[in-house]
Amino acid sequence: MEGIYWPSVFFLLFGGIACAFAVAVLFSKNIVRMAFYLVISLAATAGLFFLAGADFVGAMQLMIYVGGTLVLLVFGVMLTSQERFVEMKSDAGDWVIGIFAGGALLVVLIWAAFSIPAWQGMDAAEANAVAVKKTVTPIAMGLLGFRVDAPDRSGYFFPFEIVSVHLLVVLVGAAYLARAKRKTTSANLATGD
Amino acid sequence: MEPASTLPTLLMWAWLLPLISFVAILFFGKHMGPHGKGAAYLATVAIVGAGLLSFTALFGVWLPNHPLADAAHASDPLHGNHGIPDDSHNGSHSDAPTSAGKHAHRAYHGATDGGALRNTQRDAQLALNIQPVALLAEHGSLAEHGSLNDSQAHANNKTPPYYNGDFYTLAAFGPLKLSIGYYIDSLTVAMFCMVALIASCVHFYAIGYMHDELHEFTDSEVTLADGQPLKRPGRYHRFFQYLSLFCFSMFGIVIAGNMAMVFVFWELVGICSYFLIGFYIERKTASTAANKAFIVNRVGDFGMLIGMMALWSSLGTFSFGDTKDADGKFTERGIFSLLRTAENDYHLKPAGDMAFEGHRIMPTDSDGEVQSGDSDNRAGQWLLLVAGVGIFCGCVGKSAQFPLHVWLPDAMEGPTPVSALVHSATMVAAGVYLAGRFFPVFSPEVLLVIAYTGCITLVIAATIAITATDIKRVLAYSTVSQLGYMMLALGLGGWVAGMFHLFTHAFFKSLLFMCSGSVIHGVHTNDMTEMGGLRKKMPVTAYTMLVGCLAIIGAGIPLSTIGFSGYYSKDAIIEQAFSFADLNPVHWPLKWAPVAGALITAFYMFRLWYMTFAGKPRNQHRYDHAHESPRVMTLPLVVLAVFALGIGWTVPGTSLKVTNLLEQSRPVGTLATTHGELLPSLVLPDEHRSHEWEFRKPAGIAAFATAALGLLLATVVYLWRFLNPDELKQRFRSIHAVFWNKWWFDEIYGALIVAPGLLLAKWITKFDLGIIDSIIHGTAATCKGGAKVVDAVLDRTLVDGSANGMARGTWDLGLWLRKIQTGSLRQYVMLLVISTVLLFAAASYLQQIIPGQ
Amino acid sequence: MPYFPLANILTEPVGAAHYVVVGAILFTCGVLCMATKRNALGILMGIELVLNGANLNFIAFGSRYLRNDANTLGLDGQLVALFVIVLAAAEAAVALAIVLNFYNNHDSIDVDRADQLHG
């Protein structure tokens, strides 16, 4: 086991989990299982974030995505889970086209990823020499407009404000859209072809 | 009372009162009292007020500041003794001026006290608030001339005292200034008084005469299509509205301080006469007469415009009088002082730049150089001739001189008060007044033209009057004839004689017309052959008219100073004619025409009176219904009769008489014997020469003899009936035909001008219809056809085709593209993926094939 | 340079390229999910996967452990990733609301039936 660089091993572990469960999401036909696989994939992605030194983002990934968004999705699944929707099959033709197109995309992306030498990674000595820095406070300061990590770069106070307002609007809109409506109109609208 | 400020103010209000009345009646006439009767009172009050102001100006301001002298004696010492006892011989040489106001008068008579004059002028100017300039004389040169006057034989007369200035400047374009200005001398004031007095009488008279118009008016001379006479609402207030405007316009001409203003009011008078002559507009004859008066006047006005342009383009000013600043320096010279400068001893000389204008228009003289003051300035003389004859053309039109006299008799279609006003104080007087006003501008050659025009007019009109049977037409031709007298007098150099006759004639002619109106009012016809014996029915009218007749024939004790007003003025004209013919024997017709005219005048006037008032009634029915007119009509007759009798008299114990008043405004430089420049043989005599016994005696005798002969003839034929007029008519039927048909002037004009004009119009109409219309229609048809072709070929195929093709292409493209739009979310995602991959592939491929990468 | 990316992956530190590969796989899976699932919730899950793949790229490019030159970026990558996470949450809420609305109206969550916008 000499020479094994453990962060790489963990990368392989988390990356493999993320990819495997993403593929499982793709190929699963049961919507409830898909939700479960997705949770695992996103959690593994959070592990990759930790490995890359983004501890705060990884935590957020776990909290918001896994803890928030997925709960939302599961609620949706539960609200709409009737027998006829749990398993919905697509045409085989769609699958064929999808596999070919997706495969081509994947090939293009992987080829692009490895065609840049600077992205190949550094030596282990270099990687070990990188000082560990905490990210929570700098990120908070960055959101408030003060960059302590890279003083020559601009702060994110304004995008932060916009995102805040955006979130508010989104919540209001979501509440509006999701509120219950009478079914009487559905018959008329469903006839649309 | 400072004349320089009070005179313009007084006369301005006298001038504006009729305008105020006009505007008030224009807007509120229909609501003034019952049937618009208040309009008559308003107009009458306005004109009486104007008269009061005018007389205040004359007696309250002018006369105290400019005491009258017997100017004929005062300003020309050599002719001081006439050998005729003259009660007005207490000349002003002994008038020792004591008050400051008399300084002006002294200066006018050549006093050397220039300092006093300056003071007077300064005082005058200080008191002014309407930019007036008091110009009494050029006192600088006056002092020299004044001392020379006693030693030199023929010193020319100076600029008369006058006041001029601008009420309001309308616009100034470089040297061209258009302003409402005034030029006030004794003639202006006298004209104001005369016009206001006669117009007042006419207004009073019209209140009675026009009463038919108060209610619905039945015009028996107009027959409608259904055979019924026309019935229309009365136009009482409108009549007085026009009268007010008429008086305002006439005052405007009289007070005008420049040519442009004269022209404006000249045309206003023209349009007023148009309105009033055409007052019974429904009558075909009335509307035709109104048109005729207007159009004939336009002919004359065209000449007047030419004259004004000639004067303005060469002198650069419209103004009559000089403008001075507060220090007494000239700021701008007027027409008169430009043409008659003190350096030239007030003789008429074309101004320096006028010679230049002459060069511009005329071929240059042999020496090529014409200098200012050059006695041989022939080009300038020609220009003066053009200007003078042009201005006179306007007077010919307005004053109905030959050959434009044809409108005046037709103007009888208007109501009689209008005829009285038009024929005495306003319209025709305007022409003579203008000729008198422009007198300093007229060269001897122009005056000769004027004299011959007047001479021809007076004879022709008098002969026509002999045969006319319409009472108003007789008077109309008599007016034309008398106007001819005035023009003749002006043309012979008798300025005072001509203007004096204008005044006397105004009074007796308005009297005569109003008497005839009274007769017409009483017997309801114009035709003298249906009258007769009316003396008993309407005595006031008859005897006032007799006064008028005696005045017009110039009745008086020969070689004395006792007579009717016409006696003074007509004798003065005949004296001037004798004086003129003595120097110019070749122009003998000018001597004998007025004498012959006097005979004919006496004949036709008394023919009229006898036929109307004397003898037996020719139409018993009309005689029985005749009645004397109401007092509102007869009272003006009496007033006018008094004036017609005494306007020529001297107020006992003073030198107050019209001729002396007029003498005060004798135009500058017209009191010297002058020779024509273009016609060297022409000699224009000094007017005072005519007062010499040498001419006065034969002239007086000739005038009296002819008038008496005419009166006798009329009496023999029409009163005593020794001779039957019908037999005379038969015997001289060729001459009678000439006179009866008015020398065929209307027919000649009809054949020479109207008929060719109509023919030309017809031809032009045919040209229009035949050629121009066909060209236009052809063009239109061609355009239409071309448009159809273009429509079919270009629009339908090319433009429409391309537009429709594009639309169809877009439509088809849309139909095709809509197949892509499946609405399926999954297909869209797949397309996204595939296109991303293709984009990558294309980018990398391009990266490889582009060189240099 | 003949280079096999996984030859010494256990002994050497991984680079940004490896992260990008994982991100690409997640992205592709998400896209194919969107393209093949008829269930609207499945499509939502595909979207989440796509966003995660993208986020992974942001983190990788901004990480000082994976790139030599990443120091200049500071925490920009993480900040953007944070925004993406937040916006993804918002997007999920709205999308779920739309799906529920669609379900209420059509009694179905089959996206093939939601083709009223076809041309």
Tell me what the structure shows:
The complex is a heterotrimer of chains A (193), B (853) and C (119). Chain A has helices spanning 6-27, 31-51, 55-80, 83-86, 92-114, 124-129, 136-143, 157-178, 184-190. The model of chain A has no long low-confidence stretch (mean pLDDT 83). Chain A folds into 3 domains: 1-89, NADH-ubiquinone/plastoquinone oxidoreductase chain 6, subunit NuoJ (Four Helix Bundle (Hemerythrin (Met), subunit A)); 90-125; 133-179. Chain A has 193 residues and is mainly alpha-helical. Chain B is mainly alpha-helical and 853 residues long. Among the domains of chain B are: 443-740, no CATH class; 822-853. In chain B, the strands form 4 sheets. Chain B has a 3-stranded antiparallel beta sheet with strand order 1-2-3. Chain B has a two-stranded antiparallel sheet with strand order 4-5. In chain B, helix 13 (378-398) packs parallel to helix 17, helix 17 runs antiparallel to helix 18 (471-491) and helix 18 packs across helix 21 (565-583). Residues 71-154 and 355-375 of chain B have low confidence and may be disordered. Chain C is an all-alpha fold and 119 residues long. Chain C is built from 3 helices and no strands. The model of chain C has no long low-confidence stretch (mean pLDDT 84). Chains in contact: A-B, A-C, B-C.
Low-confidence regions of chain B: 71-154, 355-375
N-end to C-end Cα span of chain C: 51 Å
SSE run of chain C: HHH
Give the spatial strand order of the biggest sheet of chain B.
1-2-3
**Shape, per Cα inertia axes of chain B:** elongated
Strand content of chain B: 5-15%
The secondary structure category of chain B is mainly alpha
Could you give a quick summary of the protein structure above?
The complex is a heterotrimer of chains A (193), B (853) and C (119). Helix content of chain A is 72%, strand content 0%.
Topology:
The complex is a heterotrimer of chains A (193), B (853) and C (119).
Chain A lengths: L5 H22 L3 H21 L3 H26 L2 H4 L5 H23 L9 H6 L6 H8 L13 H22 L5 H7 L3
Chain B lengths: L2 H26 L8 H29 L5 H4 L28 H6 L5 H13 L5 E4 L3 H11 L12 E12 L2 E9 L1 H24 L7 E7 L5 E4 L3 H20 L3 H19 L6 H32 L7 E2 L5 E3 L2 H5 L12 H10 L16 H21 L8 H4 L5 H9 L2 H11 L6 H24 L3 H21 L3 H29 L15 H15 L11 H19 L5 H25 L6 H6 L5 H16 L11 H6 L10 E2 L7 E2 L8 H27 L5 H7 L1 H8 L4 H73 L7 H25 L4
Antiparallel strand pairs in B: 1-2, 2-3, 4-5, 6-7, 8-9
Chain C lengths: L15 H21 L3 H23 L13 H31 L13
Helix pairs in contact in C: 1-2, 2-3
